[in-house]
């Protein structure tokens, strides 16, 4: 109710609530007083004179007392409710109760309940937790709720959302608990500047793209790649002279078969021309530092092969045949 941007709606809601309650009271009062007067010339048989189905008559009795007081009670109850709880426009009620506040309290008490469990986890390094089935079960649930919408329920990601089951060489940063915790806590933004103008026209960009394809031994045109090699010097500062990337800058390895933003001449030409700004929002508002620690262990465990440095091909890997 405190979200109204305009005072009018607050008053509108308050007026509707109060007028309806008062109207109920008025209706009760009027109905309680109303008596049917006997028409001249008619016998007063204590009925209202209404007849249905030929012989069904309505007695002219006052409202039963128990019923009337019940009605009065509901009116008093609704007025008291509106004073205690929020219901009258933006008035927040005597108790200052709100669903938001109740949720916050639930979260706080839930966190207090599980604090001893997390304290046990916090005492161990993520590498050790990555072998603890209890920690992994909790980490997996937290991952499903907070990460899977972007990184997939199996952590294998999709276009522009990194695969977290890769070997280290395909990661944007140095794979390990420190990088994973920092990414979750602060978020990250990967920025590749648009470089089309610096490289030249479509012909040059195509040559460069074929050179980049040659770095990963992907199918490519040898002649174009040969001409593209000198253009690559504009990229070496970030992706390295050998194309193996630079984890400190988050510049990906261009020599493996993992393509975060898609494989092929068109995808490479597109990122060279338009650049790319790829954002992961910080998760520290949703997760406590202890929870982040447990999730980092789960993410480490996603590549179960003892962290072998093998890059896993995904849907964006090059097809077997030349394009
Ligand atoms: C809204 C989408 C989104 C959510 C939610 C999200 N991520 Fe990410 N994440 C991304 C994107 C996009 C990147 C790549 C950022 C870049 O290009 O630098 C990324 C990058 C990462 C990286 C770095 C990968 C690398 O190769 O270095 C890690 C680790 C990571 N995320 C873990 C998580 C975890 C754990 C969660 C859940 C707590 C999570 N992410 C939630 C979108 C998301
Ligand atoms: C200022 C540093 C910088 C320069 C210069 C740069 N890049 Fe990048 N590039 C990046 C970063 C950072 C990313 C990853 C963006 C992200 O996190 O999503 C990237 C991503 C890419 C990708 C996507 C890789 C994938 O896995 O999908 C390609 C291809 C690429 N760059 C090619 C080039 C080429 C070709 C040049 C030279 C014209 C170049 N880059 C110049 C920083 C740079």
What's the structural blueprint in terms of helices and strands?
Blueprint: H1 7-33, E1 47-52, E2 56-59, H2 65-84, H3 99-122, H4 126-129, H5 133-146, H6 148-151, H7 177-186, E3 188-192, H8 196-199, H9 202-215, H10 222-231, H11 233-239, H12 265-274, E4 276-280, H13 289-302
Antiparallel strand pairs: 1-2, 3-4
Helix pairs in contact: 1-2, 3-13, 5-13, 7-13, 9-10, 9-12
Task: Write up this protein.
- This protein is mostly helical.
- It has helices at 7-33, 65-84, 99-122, 126-129, 133-146, 148-151, 177-186, 196-199, 202-215, 222-231, 233-239, 265-274, 289-302; strands spanning 47-52, 56-59, 188-192, 276-280.
- The longest helix has 27 residues, at 7-33.
């Amino acid at each position: 109710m405190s979200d109204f941007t305009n005072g009018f709606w607050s008053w509108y809601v308050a007026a509707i609530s109060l007028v309806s309650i008062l109207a109920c009271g008025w209706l009760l009062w009027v109905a309680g007083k109303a008596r049917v007067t006997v028409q001249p010339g008619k016998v007063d048989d204590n009925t209202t004179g209404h007849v249905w189905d030929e012989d069904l008559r309505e007695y002219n009795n006052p409202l039963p007392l128990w019923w009337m007081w019940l009605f009065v009670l509901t009116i008093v109850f609704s007025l008291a409710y509106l004073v205690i709880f929020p219901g009258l426009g933006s008035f927040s009620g005597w108790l200052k109760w709100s669903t938001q506040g109740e949720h916050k309290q639930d979260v706080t008490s839930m966190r207090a309940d599980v604090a001893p469990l997390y304290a046990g986890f916090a005492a161990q390094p993520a590498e050790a937790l990555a072998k603890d089935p209890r920690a992994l079960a909790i980490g997996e649930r937290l991952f499903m709720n907070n990460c899977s919408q972007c990184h997939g329920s199996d952590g294998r990601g999709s276009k522009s959302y990194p695969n977290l089951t890769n070997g280290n060489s395909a990661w944007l940063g140095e794979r390990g608990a420190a990088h994973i915790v920092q990414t979750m806590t602060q978020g990250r933004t990967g920025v590749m500047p648009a470089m089309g103008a610096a490289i030249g026209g479509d012909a040059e960009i195509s040559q460069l793209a074929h050179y980049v394809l040659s770095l990963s031994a992907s199918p490519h045109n040898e002649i174009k790649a040969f001409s593209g090699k000198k253009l690559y010097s504009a990229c070496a500062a970030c992706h390295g002279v050998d194309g193996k990337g630079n984890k400190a800058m988050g510049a990906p390895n261009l020599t493996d078969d993992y393509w975060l933003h898609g494989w092929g001449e068109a995808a490479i030409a597109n990122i060279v021309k338009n650049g790319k700004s790829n954002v992961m929002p910080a998760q520290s508002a949703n997760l406590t530092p202890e929870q982040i620690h447990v999730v980092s262990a789960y993410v480490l465990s996603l590549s179960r092969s003892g962290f072998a440095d093998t890059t896993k091909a995904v849907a964006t890997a090059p097809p077997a045949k030349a394009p």
